[in-house]
């Protein structure tokens, strides 16, 4: 069990923003890749890293849409990447490696959330798992030459508090026996944390450190209508008027507050010499193995031992390698 999974503490709070976390941090001369770096949290991460001096490449399966979203942000460019297409991942990594550019920051952010119907990628793998984990697993390994060349690099895997109750369905990763979108999402988010643990174990000695970060529950300003409105209201995420509820202490955050923990993991000097841990509220999360129910007023999102289990992390790595064959 990791011994580093405990708050530092940091000067930040649940209400801190990405700008707060990177205030005074100079990322000049550093290259960053942010997958899905044009939508909501990803865009704010891209903006904040670029504002601190980094050159940011937004990797998106829809470059035109991405370019429209990040257009006008200095220091941000867009390249095509479809994480569910192995050939696209290889081509993206080959372009980067062939250019001889070192990579100091890789933010594995893109994800598919709660897709209502079972969808499979071209290899036959469930799409939430394929997008959030398998594609990022392939991408990270393909970019190892650039990460090594940086002389000190970070990989930030964007996860969720759902990792706390998620489980890896070792005998049915692709839900052949029946699909549940919430269970599939939680499996993908658990995979993000386990990948972090094993990635850091394998490559910390080469200067590549890995972190998993929970941004909080970020709904965005809306407007919210129809079934989505009713679902959000039932979860306590919007009020009776349909207005988004912001309560950082309860994990309900603005986009700027949610991005804070992501840029903290990607670039904060407070994490120097560390890795393989799960972050929350711009700090290392508490380790809490108590069983805590999920309610509209309480969204448990601290770390637990199961999501950081090193044996599961090694097993998932081996399984993921086989799935990419």
Entry keywords:
325 residues, alpha/beta, Rossmann fold, 8-stranded mixed sheet, two-stranded parallel ribbon
Describe the 3D structure.
There is one protein chain. With 325 residues, the protein is of the alpha/beta class. Helix 2 (41-51) packs across helix 9, helix 5 runs parallel beside helix 7 and helix 7 (181-203) packs across helix 10. The model has no long low-confidence stretch (mean pLDDT 93). The protein has a single domain, classed as 3-Layer(aba) Sandwich (Rossmann fold). The chain is globular, with a radius of gyration of 18 Å. Helix 3 (63-70) links the parallel strand 2 and strand 3. Helices cover 36% and strands 13% of the residues. The two termini are 30 Å apart. The strands form two sheets. It has an eight-stranded mixed beta sheet with strand order 3-2-1-4-5-6-9-10, sandwiched between helices. Strands 7-8 form a two-stranded parallel ribbon.
Topology:
Elements: H1 18-21, E1 31-35, H2 41-51, E2 55-60, H3 63-70, E3 76-80, H4 86-98, E4 105-108, H5 127-142, H6 144-149, E5 153-158, H7 181-203, E6 208-214, E7 217-218, H8 226-234, E8 252-253, H9 255-267, E9 277-280, E10 283-284, H10 310-324
Parallel strand pairs: 1-2, 1-4, 2-3, 4-5, 5-6, 6-9, 7-8
Antiparallel strand pairs: 9-10
Helix pairs in contact: 2-9, 4-5, 5-7, 7-10
- Count of domains: 1
Annotation field: number of helices: 10
**Strands, count:** 10
From the N-terminal CA to the C-terminal CA, the straight-line distance is 30 Å
Order of helices and strands: HEHEHEHEHHEHEEHEHEEH
Structural class: alpha/beta
Spatial arrangement of strands, main beta sheet: 3-2-1-4-5-6-9-10
The CATH first-level class comes to Alpha Beta
Report on the biggest sheet: 8 strands, mixed
In the CATH classification, which architecture applies?
A: 3-Layer(aba) Sandwich
CATH fold field value? Rossmann fold
So, the CATH homologous superfamily? NAD(P)-binding Rossmann-like Domain
Strand content: 5-15%
Uncertain stretches of 5 or more adjacent residues: none
Q: Cα-atom Rg, whole angstroms?
A: 18 Å
Mean of all residue-level pLDDT scores:
93
What helical percentage do the residues reach? 25-40%
Inertia-based shape: globular
